[in-house]
Amino acid sequence: MDTRRQELAEFLQAMRQRGSPEAFGFPSGSRRRTQGLRREEVAQLAGISATWYTWIEQAREVNVSPDALDRLATALKLSKSERSYLFDMADRRDPQGQQSEVDTAPDTLVTMLSQMQLPAYIMGRTWDILAWNPAAEDLFSGLLDIPWTDATRPNLMRFVFMSPIARLFVVNWEMRARRLVAEFRADCRSRLEEAEIKQLVIELSSSAEFSQFWKQHDVLERQGGLRAFQHPIHGLIQFQQVTLRPVEQEQLKLVLLQPLA
User: Cα(242)–Cα(223) distance, rounded to whole angstroms?
Assistant: First the structure.
């Protein structure tokens, strides 16, 4: 039997059994032989066939649509993590996952940034830079040391491909730019239909280099490593970069740059 299909079946059964019937609008009654909700009740809440839902819990080979999963997630009152797990086990893309989210940097992370001595910044889902500390502002001259508003936030991809300063600032610009495009594609792989991503790609495609790299469809996970910059004041400086993702907001990236002697 397919492991993922079996996991989906057992997960739905566990979610069905954990809640009290009253919480879902059903009387508990003394004649209930099962803990939590009955299969028929879940099917009723989700607006699907009771027989078909039973087949899912029996790990049969049935085709479960994203719409049906969406209704099951709502019916069972799944959390964000549980909903994500449900769609992963069914090997389906969550339609709500394609909706745009407003990027905000958590206050706790912003406070941490202000207390760090090394350059650090928080990057959002479209690679807008949402928050940064004074050390990052000093490093990224021409990007973070100019006035910005929420409507016109700095964006790493725009800076690299549309600012003449970046070509002088980033050491070995072409190699780094090519890798950034591959990392950006990998990071946005499940969100390429989002309006903000599509608009950004159209905008960046006015750069011949971005257009060329984008069409190559290279995919790389964002990694740390050596980063070198030719700063207008400090000259050649090098850093070891580390990128972290907050568990609560995985679309965000906390980027740290450790100076090298």
Answer: 7
By residue count, the chain amounts to: 261
Start and end residues for every CATH 3.30.450.180 domain found in the chain = 107-259
Which are the contacts of 136, defined by CB distance < 8 A and separation ≥ 6? Answer: 113, 119, 120, 121, 144, 257
CATH 1.10.260.40 in the chain is located at 3-98
- pLDDT of 198-240, one tens digit each? 999 999 999 999 999 999 999 888 777 999 999 999 999 999 9
| Fold of the domain built from segment(s) 107-259 | Beta-Lactamase (3.30.450)
DSSP states of 59-125 as a string?
T-S----HHHHHHHHHHTT--HHHHHHHHHHTT---GGGGS-------HHHHHHHHH-SS-EEEE-T
Q: Each residue of 107-157: pLDDT tens digit?
A: 888 999 999 999 999 999 999 999 999 999 999 989 999 888 777 899 999
CATH number of 3-98: 1.10.260.40
d(CA 134, CA 117): 8
Residue 120: strand pairing partners? 256
The answer to whether 158 and 136 are in contact (CB under 8 A) is: no
**Do the beta carbons of residue 26 and residue 45 sit within 8 Å?**
no
Burial of 162 (0-12, 13-18, 19+ CB in 10 A): middle
